[in-house]
Amino acid sequence: MNIFLSSLLLLCVFYQYDCETSTYTNKYDGVDLDQILSSDRLLNGYVNCLLDKGPCTADGKELKQNLPDAIQDECSKCTDRQREGADKVMQYIIDHRPEDWKKLEDKYNSDGSYKIKYLKTKEPVNKSASKEGSSESGYDDDADDEDDENNKDNYTKKDKKK
């Protein structure tokens, strides 16, 4: 009887260890992220899926199911491709769709830790990118957004005077 219990305990420990070190399915690793990011229709579909505001594709369901766990454990079960893809998508949304990011962050990363981590790593890239005219991420540098916003106010004031 002791051998049976010892074997059962050993099996349970092994099973738990195996589950903790496994990775998420790589079934959807071939999804073209650039195509999704360049299409408002596709990106809106994924954002709406994650926010429970629309239907989910099969890969959207998988993402939605794994996202809380991936954020909780810093994507430790992600493959390298998944980790790179997740960073690419989240960085794009932070930079180009801040309203969507705020909603996603409220639901999945309410402490804001991912954005803080990203912005810390982004600063040095933007400083070197401004010398070269483009960033390493391949997306346009929006460092002058504040200036654009100020100039917009100046144009608005001039237009009102006329």
TrEMBL record:
Per UniProt, the keywords (alphabetical) are:
Signal
Which residues does the annotated region (Disordered) include? 121-162
State where composition is biased (Acidic residues): 138-150
> The organism sits in which domain of life?
Eukaryota
Signal peptide residues are 1-19
Known InterPro entries for this protein? Answer: A10/PebIII, OS_D_A10/PebIII_sf
Q: Where is there biased composition of kind Basic and acidic residues?
A: 121-134, 151-162
Q: What is this protein called?
A: Jg6673 protein
- The source organism is Pararge aegeria aegeria
- Gene encoding this polypeptide? jg6673
